């Protein structure tokens, strides 16, 4: 099995996470620990804060309280150690599939063709992204996660739009990542091919209490 270039970290710790959005206390004293090779499944009703927690872990929005650290060296979770898959597939419609992913491959010295083959998109590499189906766009976005070669995968509903064969393939990619010491944090409303995950159930948001 090929080696990752990242050095796995033994444990990610998030404690007392508070995030306020608008007038809502979306995340109130949320915490978890994650060891290398482990997966955390974020569940909860619409609006519970699953995407907010992922975006916060990805550094895309600030914490209103708490901290997220690698336990070994107390380092914050920097973008170089994570790959984020949001709801949007973030593909430029006028660029080909390959052109969309080249920068990530170059930055991380990873192989574009290998990643495209892993998501069955190699035959479509030269197609403009605007011509991809929804599931194919999702697979291209998953290829970008592979190319990031990061220890921590943050996946917002990764199976959205995927057919059964692609979901099975995603399961293989998740298993390989974990077997190499990678970590996965994923949101989902449907069963994911992610065996023995930890669970974090978020509840519907409250209004910010009067101070
Ligand atoms: N920019 C914003 N300003 C104010 N409130 C926001 C903003 N963005 C999101 N929210 C609120 O934050 C809460 C959490 O939203 P989030 O998208 O994290 O939920 P979720 O659990 O991922 O939901 P879903 O299952 O529908 O994807 C919701 O109540 C939402 O209305």
TrEMBL record:
It comes from the Bacteria. Keywords: ATP-binding, Cytochrome c-type biogenesis, Membrane, Nucleotide-binding, Translocase, Transport. GO terms for molecular function: ATP binding; ATP hydrolysis activity; transmembrane transporter activity. One of its GO terms (biological process) is cytochrome complex assembly. PANTHER family: ABC TRANSPORTER I FAMILY MEMBER 1 (PTHR43499). This is Heme ABC exporter ATP-binding protein CcmA.
